[in-house]
Amino acid sequence: MSFLPLLLACFAPTTPVEVALSAEAGTQPLRCGQPVALDGHEVVLRDLRLYVHDVQLVGADGVAHDLRLTEDDWQSAGVALLDFEDGCHNGTSATNTTLRGHTRAVAPYQGVRFTLGVPAALNHADPLTLDPPLTTMAMHWGWQAGFKFVRFDYRLDGEAARMHLGSTGCVGPMGSVSGCDRANRSRMEVPLRSGSLAARLDLGPALTDAHAGAGCMADPTDPGCAPWLHLFGLPTDAAPHPVAHAFVEAP
Amino acid sequence: MSRALAALVVLAVGAIGWLSADSLAAIIAPEPAWVWDLPEGIPAPRVPADNPMSVAKVELGRHLFYDERLSVDGDMSCASCHEQARAFTDGKPVGIGTTGEAHTRGAMSLANVAYAPRYTWAHPYLDRLEHQALAPLFGDAPVEMGMGDREDELVERLTADPTTVARFRAAFPDDAEPVTIPHLVKAIAAFERSLLSFDSPYDRYRRGETEALSPGAERGMELFFSERLECFHCHGGPTFSDALTHAKLPSAEVAFHNTGLYDLDGNGAYPSPNTGLHEVTGKPGDMGRFKAPTLRNIAVTAPYMHDGSLASLDDVLDHYADGGRAGLDHPLKSEFVMGFVLRDDERADLLAFLHALTDEGFLTDPRFADPETMP
Question: B281 in contact with A at a CB cutoff of 8 Å?
Fold first, then answer.
């Protein structure tokens, strides 16, 4: 039976996998509508939703394989909508905080990788022709002919603010965009603790910035955007060469 | 009767047995094709291939346009900010949404909106009413009708009403699922495209009714179209806007202008984030560039400019006579806003002409009115 391992390698079975994601500020969980104290500030999450795609798992052998996302209302065509709000302010009562799929990566997994955002072809498609999870108009960003990749609406010390990230400076109408000045898609790579299929999205580093109360609409010249673009590893006018982000971390 | 024809009659009679009254009516009296009600010399609008006009679709769109179920609190319809009597504006400096949130800009007139190549006050690419409608319905910055995240609820509300479902079915007869968000915005867009205003005293004068304009309005017309005042460069053509598209124009004419309304820093800055085209493109040269709105029905659409910051047509004339209220040496201003001197009698004539652009029939046409009051 010496050929069995070879046979198994050729027909490597895919394993069902579920990656759990949590939203945090510092080390505290951010729950919709619930105040969190952070370095002397009070943060309240009102809406946090983000699109990810190109999800991969790094296997025990160090090799990355796709996590082929299961098709449902949250995941389609390789794009997933993560939804950490439960309608506490506006939004939807349903939440979605896991990535579900199958992978050929070998357990125990060493890491998870994904790209924040919607792939260009789907991002700029005519929104009237798309399927879930790209039918959520609250995530559409009509003035940039695409989607909000990240929508974070919050209160900081009692003041309402919002941070919306998507591709900007896009040229062309919805359905036929030829390009964007700033794609703003960010690749995230996070090591996993052995045996734990979980990662935390930490908004804390941006929320403790002096400009965090101003919010951000992905404008690289806006000081209010600096902490956010920095968090996602994206360039700003002041810092054109982003350093490694601290957004996604192992639990 | 030939055998084939007899067979057809038998088939038809047999079919009547299981056809509903509605579909039977459709067979007996097929829906008339859409006809643009246009005066001679006005070209037909351009219509997206995936949303052809039909009588049933426009009628559905009219009902939806006036339907308050399209807002989260059920107290606001498209017509709340687009009142027919004000040429589909609302008399406010800026729009106020259903939650009380203020827009940065005022509601634009919908007169001849089908001829606009781009939508909103300043967007370089937003070229379909179907897409524009998504912003007031579902947008969050600002909240207007507040239906973001309530798409399912909206469809449920409309589906619970058999009369509304029947209207959707009549407008989209080939679709198994008639009540959808894409169909909703398509119907509203079709209704908006039907809002034609080409019957002002000025239009009648152009058609040979020389008495339609007063002598003062006639003199005002000459001033308006003069190189001295330059009004017509940006407010020309059938819609009195140089941003124009129609069926006979091979390529849409897209135009945005800085009229020198603001200069906050000596470099031409407009108040952020309401910076016109620049807000979308991020290009410094696009600062303060907005679309020239139609001047048709302009006397009933006060206050003026994108942020309603000029209360009257008199104020607007002052602004342009000054070469832009932010100063003659504005670095980003249009070359057509150079200032002029206007005598009092000339001002009265020009205002008389602007008033002669009001199309009373358009403001009261029952085809565009609230179906509740004008079925």
Answer: yes
Which residue range forms the structural domain that includes residue B230?
A: 201-361
What residues contact A24, with CB distance under 8 A and at least 6 apart?
A30, A200, A201, A202, A203, A204
Greatest C-alpha distance within chain A = 68
User: Rounded distance, CA B296 to CA B206, Å?
Assistant: 15
Cβ proximity of B53 and B190 under 8 Å: yes
Domain shared by B220 and B160, yes or no: no
The CATH number that applies at residue B70 is: 1.10.760.10
Within a domain: A59? yes
pTM beyond 0.90: the answer is no
Quote the tokens at residue A73.
Answer: 């209302």
Q: How close B178 comes to chain A (CA, Å)?
A: 14
- Cα distance between residue A108 and residue B290, in whole Å: 57
For chain A, the domain total comes to 1
The nearest CA of chain A is from the CA of B174 a distance in Å of 17
Q: Does A69 map to a domain?
A: yes
Cα A127 from Cα A174, distance rounded (Å)? 8
pLDDT digits (tens, 9 = 90+) for B67-119: 999 999 999 999 999 999 999 999 999 999 999 999 999 999 999 999 999 99
Q: Read off the pLDDT of residues B29-73 as tens digits, 9 standing for 90 and up.
A: 567 789 999 999 899 999 999 999 999 999 999 999 999 999 999
CA distance B358 to A154: 46
Q: Supply the ipTM of this predicted assembly.
A: 0.75
Q: How many CB pairs under 8 A join A and B?
A: 74
Residue B41 lies inside a defined structural domain of this protein = no
